[in-house]
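Quick one: structure tokens for this chain, please?
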Amino acid sequence: MVDIVGLYDTLQDATYRGLVFYMLDSKDTPGRRVLRFLFPGVDPVVFQDLGVADGEIRISGILVGDDVIQQAEKLRTAFRTPGPATLLHPWMGELQVIPLQAGEIAFAHNEWRVARFSMVLALYAEPELPAPDTLTELLDQVAQLRAQARAWLRGVLAPVAATLSVIAYAEHFAGQVGYVWKMVTNADSVLSSAVAAAVGTLETSFATGVDFGGQIADAMDAAPVAIAATTFVVPQAAVAPGSNVVTTAPLDGRKAAEVMLQGFGQIVAPSGTPQPSPVLAAVAQLMIVAALVPVVVDITFTSQQEAIAWRARSLVAIEQTLACVGAIAASSPVLAGAALTALGRVRAAMMADMSAVIGRLPAIAKLALPQTVPAWVVAHYLSGDT
């Protein structure tokens, strides 16, 4: 038996999960993870290196003191605690470890005020998970939504199924959509010029030959896409002095989104005769949503409140479109059902991306003060901290 009294002065302090103990000895087994393959009838041996092996860390320690029983109970609790732990090693420094086996605690009749223990640990590193790319996922789902909307329209307006009444509805609604975009962009010269070509396409007659549905889809999709891609000329004062280059910048996302939401509202409740078929109205809403969502998520928001407000407005448009498409899906489950699924995925992807954005933004608090007060009073009121 080791002379504890003589050993006491040479012991090294260590801690495990914050519990202090004396370390007697420690050993670890670093190396490589190598597999050896043996094949029948073949003399050479094949080895495969699977990477670094940090091995086990085996530690023996003692607890000393009049309260050794209480210390042992705390150590028992530490052994039973799940997850990684911090080990302050007297020779190896601070380590993140995780237990590989159950620990052992032992008492001896001839070692009063002393408890011996051992444990087997392994080095622990937090796994590096890739950050979710919510924006890419959202844009992929938006592309799928646009493709489903176009496929739906082309399927309904295929030449073999295009009756004169359907063609009349389609041409009338296309012209009506053109009128809507003229109306909502009329007050802004930049927007009016940007969508002029798209609106012009909407007002032309469509050939009833091959891919009639594709022509209508192109025409209805062109205006919101043109609004999203609109640029304006940067004022010369904002350009570097002496530069003669005409600089352009994207239209502010808030304005583009506002225009799309206005157009969406006009298309949800169309006026005029004949009324468009439900499919045409649903496809127009799908196409506006597909152009609206990327514009909204690209806005540089200034606060959580602003981002939440724009998310709510976008979700209203998505929910209205879901209701419109859902009403048709019962009678047209194949094409409408696919569009409904794509729209639901866009909604989920937008919620995920906007939640990530909102979490990084500051929250703005509004406080009505009865009179002029020191700034620290306001800060203490809001945060409860001096």
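Residues 304-329 form the longest helix (26 residues).
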